Amino acid sequence: MNIVVCVKYVPDAQGDRTFEADNTTDREAVDGLLSELDEYAVEEALKIVEAGEGEVTVLTMGPDDAATALKKGLQMGADKGVLITDEAIAGSDAVATSLVLAKAIEKLGPVDLVLTGLASTDGTMSVVPAMLAERLGLPQVTFASELTVEGGNVSIRRDNADASETVQASLPAVVSVTDQINEPRYPSFKGIMAAKKKPIETWSLADLGVDAGQVGLDAAWSKVESVEARPPRSKGEVVTDEGEGGKALAEFLASRKFV
Known about the structure:
alpha/beta, 7-stranded parallel β-sheet, 27% helix
């Protein structure tokens, strides 16, 4: 089985994230890493292959440093990585991202299963899987809390507040998984060393036949007009309880419209 896992290189949430002059995320001023939610997709792909046979390719687009995300996937056990990097990509929205990823998946050849995480931890839009499926002409089954591949079909369990649904589609298909589906493995020392010998291909937009005018900030369907730093937290109010503490607390909550 040939599985492609789409992953994203995102700024570390623990870092001090800032914006560029054009109001896009500054991805150089803070360390980046593999989006945490994508680790579940990589893990699920590895489990499927380990239960049978096949190959797992991790795919991403971004700056040169995005190879860091691919290396983490290779250390976990993926077989190879593909990095799409091009200066024109900077500022791309979800529409352009899905276009580039779809072209890369087509270039990789016949694919049985495309896996993604629930969402990226920096954008949290959760729309790329559906867009990918549309561009590739494949069925999509999303928000999988459990996944089974059998007899040319993929079956998932989708949990929501009211019920659990079972959804099935024929392969090839696009599937997004939630953080309930498994427990991603930590790269072992053996896996880290083995990853050094695994291939990472680097492709440009020209390699995919994508026109630069279709991607980037100028082609984005929406733009951030302005950003403003969050103000520092103000000092809290201390109420000394001398018999009226409860009243003071109630008045404070009411002034903030909490009660």
